Amino acid sequence: MLLPDPLSDLLSVLSARTLLSAAIHTKADWSVRFISEGVKFNAVLNGSCCLISESLPEPVHLEAGDCYLLVNCGAYILCSDPDLTPVKASSVFREDYTASLNPDAPGETTFIVGGRIVFDETDASLLLDELPPILLISGKTQEASGIRWMLSRLRDEWHDSRAGGSVAADHLAQLLMVEILRAWQRSAEAPAASWLRAIGDRRIGGAIRLMHADPARQWRLEELAASIGMSRSNFALRFRELAGLSPLDYLVKWRMRLGAKALLTSPEPVSAIAYTLGYQSESAFSNAFKRVTGISPQHYRRMRNESFQPADKRDMPRNGPEPAGHPSSGNQSGF
Length: 335
Hints:
2 domains; elongated; Arc Repressor Mutant, subunit A; 6-stranded mixed beta sheet; Jelly Rolls; about 40% helix; 5-stranded mixed beta sheet; alpha+beta; single chain
């Protein structure tokens, strides 16, 4: 049986979902400029292209099997040649968020798909603050073996139009997101002190699992250290080196993340939520919540309930734009 793990816990709390929503088919010379808002991923399923962005020191050549994650990266260009003048994406994409450039030209077809990562819980900073504006994963690396299989399946689902293909493609895109995060976690480019690095460490990740499994418990540093076979001092030092904060500070932040989710999704009074997170009084929980978020639990619940609308649970339609008012407003495509 699969046991819960910290990354799964966080993605569940954020209600993170990946929706495959856009595609480019192109031949010959082409160059398109995009404005990326929110969190997107793109994958090259066939052919090759160049990626140009101010977040990159130089243009990056991408081939079939390569993919990348975009985190509020702003403007970027996909092209066949960096010397070409780009056109705006709005001028080439149809209503269904697909684009076909130079389809009758000779040569190999480049096929790129894009998707959006949607968070029902909009404060995804614990995850997104770990990531660069553009996270590149080469399909040639050993870590990308799972990604290569998923991209092959995505290509088949997109082209074959079989029954259930839309759902299958979105589930594959969800798996792809997790694999991209795993590959980044293992890469040398990931920050030395980061939450993803910490959960990937056998011992420190084990301590984080324990805290996630029982966040209401009054954990002591000695108890956590002993559970993973470390001394108190070495555990505290190693945890801070990897996670960038102390174990008990991390526990408080995780409790507040769970508390924020409960305030949005549960009708329980603040006092009941406080008790489930290990606080013996509403005031103790409220003080901790305000220290972490800057506002009281009551204010947070009232403010979010007035402004928050849950993300549409249905798949994004392939043949039309998304309904107005979706939380991922702005550029709704996968590019």
